[in-house]
Amino acid sequence: MSKRLTLKILSSAAVMGVLGATMALTANTAVAAEWPERPVRLVVPFAPGGSNDVIARKLADSISKSTGQTFIVENRGGAGGVVGSGYVATAAPDGYTFLFVSGSIATSAAVQKTPYNAKEAFDAVSLVAEAPFVVITRKDFPAKNVTELLQYAKDNPGEINFGSAGLGDSSQMATELLANMAGVKMQTVGYKGIAPAQMDLVAGRLDMIITTMASTRGTPTDDLPKLAFTGEQRDIAFPDIPTVKEETGLDYVVNVWWGVFGPKGVDTAARDKLNEEIRKAVSTEEFANFLDNVGARPRHSSPEELQSLLEADLERWTETAEAAGIRAN
Fold first, then answer.
1. Most C-beta atoms within 10 A of its C-beta, which of 26, 152, 169, 324?
2. pTM
3. Which tens digits make up the pLDDT trace of 31-80?
4. C-alpha closest to that of 125 among 43, 57, 24
């Protein structure tokens, strides 16, 4: 074969390669430009009324207005978020089903044999918000601060009943971590969501809950005693309420985050456009004010950052579950 013919063949191959890459880029750009062409589901793996539901609905409303397409919040509660998360893990990765979930996706995986591998079953999209938890008790509970609460737990092992949104949800694990660090034992009572747990706290059937302000605002739970926040610093809206670390001297700092994931292999163009829509939504003053009203703050991220956060939490909460003697079932 002559050099001239070889060069022509190579040149043709190069041209075809360039054309192929260009066509792929054009196709991806077209998908990105067209998405969403129909309603998109944001699956919340908890019952209505909790922080996941409240923030998801605000995000869905903001993105619906921005894109002109409907974003539907669908509640699929149960098993500490595993039911809804499992549903998304097996959903078609076409960019029309996403999971809106808190860090409970890591806590539930630490204590349950989930039907999915939390580290590998999803494609991260973006963080949306973060916030500290708050320690809340029933009105007639004898402890008036966290120090007294932990002393009561030491004097009455296993007699404090605390509510959570099912085995392995963030509320349970935040409480288990505090109990582990303080060397006390408390009894968890699981629900399908944090909202029904809070109703029982109001009714006096539970002793305490570690939850988010997002899930208490506008509910009777908001009127119950708030003993402490779990962040590094005091909440600016409640300057008279200490942090757990400040009150007890324990190196206890726990925040909750909320984020969006797609099923593994989700259309990357749709994922990237949704990431951008989330960035636009959480960057608005309206969304920031909304989050401030529910005790949270906006936080956008890259998919890689959210994935790293998930993996770090999986390690932390697995260690907490082991220390608390919680076995995956």
1. 169
2. 0.76
3. 456 899 999 999 999 889 888 999 999 999 999 999 999 999 999 998 88
4. 43
215, 57 Cβ separation under 8 angstroms: no
Count Cβ atoms below 10 Å from residue 268 Cβ, excluding itself: 16
Strand partners, 136: 209, 226
In the structure, what pLDDT confidence band is assigned to residue 229 with cuts at 50, 70 and 90? Answer: very high
Q: In what order do the strands lie in the sheet with 122-132?
A: 71-75, 40-44, 97-102, 255-263, 122-132, 297-298
| E strand spans, the chain | 40-44, 71-75, 97-102, 122-132, 134-137, 161-164, 187-190, 208-211, 226-229, 255-263, 297-298
Contacts of 106 (CB under 8 A, 6+ apart): 118, 310, 313, 314, 316, 317
Q: Look up residue 168 and give its two tokens.
A: 């392995």
Amino acid identity of residue 140, one-letter, is: D
